[in-house]
Specification:
By secondary structure, this protein is mainly beta. The protein has 2 helices and 36 strands. Helix content is 8%, strand content 46%. A hairpin with a 5-residue loop joins strand 20 and strand 21. InterPro entries: PQQ_b-propeller_rpt (IPR018391), PQQ_rpt_dom (IPR002372), Quinoprotein_ADH-like_sf (IPR011047), WD40/YVTN_repeat-like_dom_sf (IPR015943).
Length: 468
């Protein structure tokens, strides 16, 4: 034991002596290097030029998770041209119609089983009307198929192709005519034969047509964006049989209502000519025109004042009619008027707070007795109950990708690869589905199934009874 202790002491002594020698040389080196020695003796990580944190987080929501009944691979809508996104799939009568390998396919909504396929190199646009599927070939010739069998009823020999410019493109089937909107051009095809009946263009629109088309009593109405001293909307009327333009009116928007041979339309142009920042007075004019001649038969005005002090906001917003009432956005509120029984200088029947007023909110109309608004920045929705003016919101636990509503069911796909089914009336989340996708298109619904459109795939999910 004594021997071991002496050896240990000797070893410690040698170590201490060695450290002293090293320290002496180190001290000399430090004197020679001066202040630079501090830099050489420390390691530094690169500092970022910009570093910001998103502190906003969503609260986790615990709900039952539903498993898809089936999954099918389809053409990815993200690879499609802008005009076709949102039109590449429909669900009707227990079937889903969409595209795979540029072919139109039909799937059983409950099982995902492929029922039939049609064509090749098709334009990814499909609509359903009275058991018939309508679409466009690769060179934009419309076709009609039996929705049950996939057999061709007709394919037109006339193309609606104009040029490579992206423009509004819509297929609008009615009772006996298939209308196709191509920018500022309107095509009318016979529903039974596919024969082109007429084609009409609004030259002042220069390709800038909206997706609005309405047919009434032998007249077809459309709207266009027309250049002038100020660009504004323009309402056109065409003869349904020939396509001949009957009349137009610059500054007038789509029909709020067509009743007793009269078209009621908002004058959007006059408000642009007023100096709004210094004056609080605001006015909306609704003009009435003879449907067939375009002769103005009357006009009504709705007046209000902006709150606060100048400079005032523009104050004008969305205007729409529903169930005999007219709704006008007036600054930070929405005013409700009796549209069927107009009284000059009448106060609104009711006013409601306007959701997302300072956040670029967009009106989506009335659903389930609620004014629905979308926040254009975040994609979130908010509603105002018509019965009491109470605001209601429908929350998830991740940023929104897309929201679809059917009846009392709200289907919220999110950018974390999930979807929530929410009871719209109670704002209560009911279930969750894992989709595995970041972006989603509109959720479809048919025969007790919802069809989730993820990136390059469809997921069929059976709805719980509480949301049917």
């Amino acid at each position: 034991m004594l021997k071991t202790k002496k050896n240990q002491q000797f070893t410690n002594l040698k170590g201490q002596l060695f450290r002293c020698i090293v320290a002496s040389f180190t001290a000399v080196g430090l004197l020679a290097l001066g202040g630079n020695a501090v830099i050489l003796s420390q390691a530094h990580a690169d500092a970022p030029d910009v570093s910001v944190r998103n502190w906003y987080s969503y609260m986790g929501i615990s709900v039952p998770e539903l498993k898809p009944s089936w999954t099918a691979q389809v053409d990815n809508y993200l690879n499609m041209n802008e005009p076709y996104i949102g039109h590449q799939a429909v669900a009707e009568e227990g079937k889903v119609f969409t595209f795979a390998d540029s072919k139109l396919i039909s799937l059983d909504a409950k099982t995902g089983k492929r029922l039939w396929s049609y064509g090749k190199g098709l334009t990814p646009y499909v609509v359903y009307h009275n058991n018939v599927i309508y679409g466009l070939t690769g060179d934009h010739k419309p076709y009609a198929l039996n929705a049950k069998t996939g057999k061709a009823i007709w394919q037109s020999g006339s193309s609606t192709w104009i040029d490579t410019r992206y423009r509004t493109e819509m297929l609008v089937p009615t009772g006996d005519t298939l209308y196709i909107i191509q920018g500022s051009t309107t095509f009318a095809f016979d529903m039974k034969t596919g024969k082109l009946k007429w084609r009409a263009d609004e030259p002042l629109g220069e390709g800038n047509g909206t997706d609005y088309l309405e047919e009434s009593n032998g007249v077809v109405l459309r709207t266009f964006y027309v250049q002038g001293a100020l660009t504004s909307i323009q309402l056109n009327a065409y003869d349904k049989k020939t396509g001949r333009k009957l009349w137009d009116d610059f500054g007038q928007g789509e029909a709020l209502q067509i009743k007793d041979g009269l078209v009621y339309s908002v004058d959007y142009h006059s408000s642009k000519l007023t100096e709004y920042q210094s004056k609080p007075e605001r006015k909306v004019s609704v003009n009435a025109y003879n449907l067939k001649t375009g002769v103005q038969k009357g006009s009504v005005e709705y007046n209000w004042k902006m709150n606060g002090d100048p400079p005032y906001d523009y104050g004008y917003g969305s205007i729409f009619a529903s169930n005999g009432k007219l709704y006008i956005e007036q600054g930070d509120r929405v005013a409700e008027y009796n549209f069927d029984k107009y009284t000059a200088n009448a106060d609104p029947l009711r006013t409601y707070p306007r959701p997302f007023y300072k956040e670029n909110g967009q009106s989506l109309g009335i659903v389930q007795e609620r004014l629905i608004y979308k926040n254009e920045t975040t994609g979130e929705l908010a509603g105002i109950k018509l019965v009491n003016g109470q605001e209601i919101k429908w929350y998830g636990d991740a940023p929104v990708a897309q929201i679809s509503v059917y009846g009392k069911g709200m289907y919220r796909t999110q950018r974390n690869g999930t979807m929530f089914g929410i009871n719209m009336l109670t704002a209560t989340p009911v279930f969750r589905v894992t989709t595995g996708a970041d972006l989603h298109e509109a959720t479809l619904m048919t025969d007790g199934m919802i069809i989730i459109q993820a990136e390059g795939k469809l997921l069929g999910v059976k709805l719980p009874a509480s949301l049917r």
